Amino acid sequence: MLRYLTSGESHGKCMLTIIDGIPAGLYVDKSIIDLELARRMLGKGRGKRMTIESDRVEILSGLRKDRTIGSPVSFLVRNMDSSIDKLPKVYEPRPGHADLSGVLKYNLSDIRDVLERASARETVSRVAVGALCKILLAEFGITVVSHVTAIGAAVSKAKNLTFEKIAASSVKSPVMCADAKASASMCREIDKAMAAGDTLGGIFEILVHGVPPGLGSYAQWDRRIDANIARAIMSIQAIKGVDFGAGFESAGLKGSLAHDEIFYDKRKGFYRKSNNAGGIEGGMTTGEDIIIKAAMKPISTLRKPLSSVDIRTKKRVMATVERSDVCAVPAAAVIGEAVSSIEIANSLIEKFGGDSISEMRRNYNGYLAQVKRF
Ligand code: EPS
What we know:
- By secondary structure, this protein is α+β, with helices and mostly antiparallel strands.
- Helices cover 34% and strands 21% of the residues.
- The protein has eleven helices and 17 strands.
- The strands form six sheets. Strands 8-7-9-15-10 form a five-stranded antiparallel beta sheet. The protein has a four-stranded antiparallel beta sheet with strand order 1-2-6-3, with helices on one face.
- Strand 4 (63-64) and strand 5 (67-68) form a beta hairpin.
- Helix 1 (30-41) packs antiparallel against helix 10 and helix 5 crosses helix 10 (329-352).
- The longest helix is centred in the last third of the chain and has 24 residues, at 329-352.
- The site of ligand EPS has 14 residues, from loops.
């Protein structure tokens, strides 16, 4: 089983991660992890912090000569802004942030104790773990990409995109949108929100290609792969909704139109011509692409703050204004790729045995041959 824990405050010394359960014999190119960390920092609408940081992973343990040895792997990413002890105390909770519930829960008098850990800076760790898992998935021909489909009122009209086009959009568009026209209006929306002291949310989509059928299981609720991916996506800061394939839209479809009819071809095996299921039926992968959508609410730090209450005096005040982003939907898409990769890697390890890459490959090839013979 793959497990990991993250630690670190947004303006503390560093972000730390320990990952347990990565099979032995995996070659790890550190530059792939750094590339994913760099992608997380990009996107129009990110705040000044992203000009201060240059996130790079230091691999502290678990590798010898760039190969995993079955030991836990540990990652450290240093914060350039590590000013936590110099930062002022905060007493004015932001609506939408962890601020108020956090001080009530932990009985704290300074909201900074909450916001430092609740911050989306924590996702540095998860993107690093996700990158390691992407390296593992690549060994089995599985790739993960994402694109932004909406920011504020601007919606992408791109339909039936190929996997390659989606991958390219994440490089070409400043908001990772595959529809050039929508990308331009998303940028305008962000400029407008920035000028107004406001923030924006949006929607992103993740596609996973090359997955074999049968990852996850219907046999127990916590082994359903969609449930595990949904939990991982929902744990990303500011995410408010997640669906698979036709998702919420499928509620309004008749059964005859909602389900993906089954076909067989000697070369391809079983296949579908549509993918409303988003690549998952009965908590298991079907072998078609996994399609995940997630909705992100607008960032809760507003330069023109909302009304709040001072936690000391209980008098009406305006919420605290911290340095923050105007829009972080493209970054959230990169984080979504990472956490999805972790869940899929975990299912792959569960199904094919996770002690060494060679053992996994043997089991994987044997299983593919069995599916082919079926
Ligand atoms: C973030 C770092 C933070 C914020 C943002 C994400 O840096 P700072 O607070 O120093 O500006 O830019 O965090 C939030 C949106 C939040 O609500 O905490 C990062 O590295 O992703």
